[in-house]
């Protein structure tokens, strides 16, 4: 009698959850072991910076599925456990409990860890990062007790935390080395709209500035900026990016370049080992290059793609990446490839925070971002998927029927 | 067997339901929506299962309704999730046309909430 194969999923975040679900949907009937470092079932991580911080959502409301979901599908959850070593030749993982787990196939979906810059005072109490539910609960408690919050880094996490802290009535300083929030991804034109949005909600924006040190006696009390400015603050949030959690893979000799290198079927350089989500740098067959994406949609979809590939049903993973960000009463939806663009075309009314940005490279649309323009999501996505070459004046013209325009291009 | 007015509510004349336009209505205080794709009229819950958003502000493409907030997709025929971030299906309702009027069932179809 043949032994039942064991598929181990390391990381019970978004990618791990959807991989486990996809394995069963694809008919895999061996053992599925989903191992997560956090002591909580897989959950909707984007809710941490918004609903959880603001207190409009309870932790039990953001888990994807009840326990029965996993029981019914015979997905074994091992929570509060992390892998500390991994031997691809022996097909074995060692956990922090000392336990050794053998696998036939392995998915690495260990995500990413927040970067803590080497700054004097960085380890003072009152300095927070946000990645896990525990981080979010600690930050919420901190915010409730705080008066003046300094958010270092105006990327997506930093900007959302700033908005949530304002929703809680806290004074907020939002600081970044770049000239406007989220400008690396959204470009200066749309980032400027977000600068206006944060100012309109009372945030003290300090753009083009860095922090030299954090100071305080027993906990953080002030920040000294790179120009010598001193800012009082009783809570600091670091939102300066993440590093993919590749240490195990690197130590085991897998090919790693930024993230763990995988092909379009989520397969790593080691036999039977896959990777998906924030930790994976993947070959996008339509794009013809490697990318790494740190967003929910990719984690879920790539996790599912990895699950299907592990179950013996590989399909090339070639999505139009997407993400959203919700700040104050606005929502932004983004579809597109993380590639350089040479032109940004705005459509709509930026002053009213209702605007769509099209990103063009050599005349072709490579991405689109819709701020409070829900009726343009699908049309813009079609234009991105088709790599449509459209006259910028036509895109900007409010009388252009985007839906009709986008349907002229073959769906991608 | 109860008549159409017991288990079903009358919504609007079928002839007025335009292709891929979304019509919002209320049943027992809950938002529902109605739309047409080709010759078929579909009805489902009016609020996304992921976060609060009115599906009437969304868009229809290839039998899928997309949430205006985060782009979750649901198959109008079954309610099944076709794109993240939603994980819970959108309840769908039976539709019938009687004397040119669209009637929608009060209770969701069984499969929609599976």
From TrEMBL, chain B:
It comes from the Bacteria. Keywords: 2Fe-2S, Iron, Iron-sulfur, Metal-binding. Pfam families: Rieske (PF00355). Residues 9-104 form the Rieske domain. One of its GO terms (molecular function) is 2 iron, 2 sulfur cluster binding. InterPro entries: Rieske_2Fe-2S, Rieske_2Fe-2S_sf. Gene3D superfamilies: Rieske [2Fe-2S] iron-sulphur domain (2.102.10.10). This is Rieske (2Fe-2S) iron-sulphur domain protein. It comes from Sphaerobacter thermophilus (strain ATCC 49802 / DSM 20745 / KCCM 41009 / NCIMB 13125 / S 6022). The lineage of its organism: Bacteria, Pseudomonadati, Thermomicrobiota, Thermomicrobia, Sphaerobacterales.
């Amino acid at each position: 009698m043949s032994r039942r194969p064991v598929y181990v999923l390391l990381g019970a975040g978004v990618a791990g959850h959807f991989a486990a679900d996809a394995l069963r949907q694809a008919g895999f009937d061996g053992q599925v072991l989903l191992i997560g470092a956090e002591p909580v079932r897989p959950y909707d991580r984007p809710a941490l910076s918004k609903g959880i911080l603001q207190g409009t959502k309870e932790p039990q409301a953001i888990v994807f599925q009840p326990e029965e979901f996993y029981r019914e599908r015979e997905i074994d959850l091992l929570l509060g456990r992390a892998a500390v070593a991994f031997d691809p030749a022996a097909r074995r993982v060692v956990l922090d409990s000392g336990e050794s787990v053998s696998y036939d196939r392995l998915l690495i979906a260990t995500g990413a860890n927040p970067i803590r810059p080497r700054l004097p005072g960085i380890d003072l109490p009152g300095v927070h990062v946000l990645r896990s539910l525990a981080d979010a609960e600690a930050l919420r408690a901190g915010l409730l007790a705080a008066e003046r919050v300094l958010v270092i880094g105006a990327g997506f996490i930093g900007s959302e935390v700033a908005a949530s802290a304002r929703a809680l009535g806290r004074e907020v300083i939002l600081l970044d080395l770049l000239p406007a929030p989220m400008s690396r991804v959204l470009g200066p034109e749309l980032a400027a709209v977000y600068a206006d949005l944060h100012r309109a909600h009372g945030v003290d924006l300090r753009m083009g500035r860095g922090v030299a040190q954090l100071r305080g006696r027993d906990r953080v009390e002030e920040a000294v900026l790179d120009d010598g400015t001193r800012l009082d603050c009783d809570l600091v949030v670091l939102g300066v990016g993440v590093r993919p959690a590749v240490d195990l893979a690197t130590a085991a000799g897998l090919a790693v370049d930024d993230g763990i290198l995988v092909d379009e079927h989520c397969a790593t350089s080691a036999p039977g080992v896959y990777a998906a989500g924030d930790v994976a740098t993947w070959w996008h067959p339509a794009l013809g290059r490697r990318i790494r994406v740190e967003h929910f949609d990719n984690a879920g979809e790539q996790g599912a793609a990895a699950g299907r590939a592990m179950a013996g049903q590989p399909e090339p993973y070639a999505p139009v990446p997407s993400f959203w960000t919700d700040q104050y009463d606005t929502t932004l939806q983004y579809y597109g490839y993380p590639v350089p663009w040479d032109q940004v075309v705005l459509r709509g009314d930026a002053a009213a925070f209702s605007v769509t940005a099209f990103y063009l490279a050599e005349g072709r649309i490579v991405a689109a971002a819709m701020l409070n323009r829900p009726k343009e999501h699908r049309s813009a996505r079609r234009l991105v998927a088709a790599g449509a070459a459209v006259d910028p004046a036509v895109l900007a013209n409010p009388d252009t029927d985007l839906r009709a325009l986008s349907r002229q291009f073959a769906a991608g | 067997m109860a008549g159409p007015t017991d288990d079903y509510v009358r919504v609007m004349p079928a002839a007025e339901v335009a292709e891929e336009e979304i019509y919002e209505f209320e049943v027992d205080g809950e938002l529902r929506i109605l739309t047409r794709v080709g010759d078929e009229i579909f009805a489902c819950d009016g609020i996304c299962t992921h976060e609060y958003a009115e599906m009437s502000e969304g868009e229809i493409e290839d039998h899928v309704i997309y949430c205006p907030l985060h782009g979750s997709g649901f198959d109008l025929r079954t309610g099944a999730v076709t794109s993240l971030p939603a994980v819970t299906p959108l309840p769908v309702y039976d539709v019938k046309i009687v004397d040119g009027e669209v009637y929608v069932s009060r209770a969701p179809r069984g499969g929609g909430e599976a």
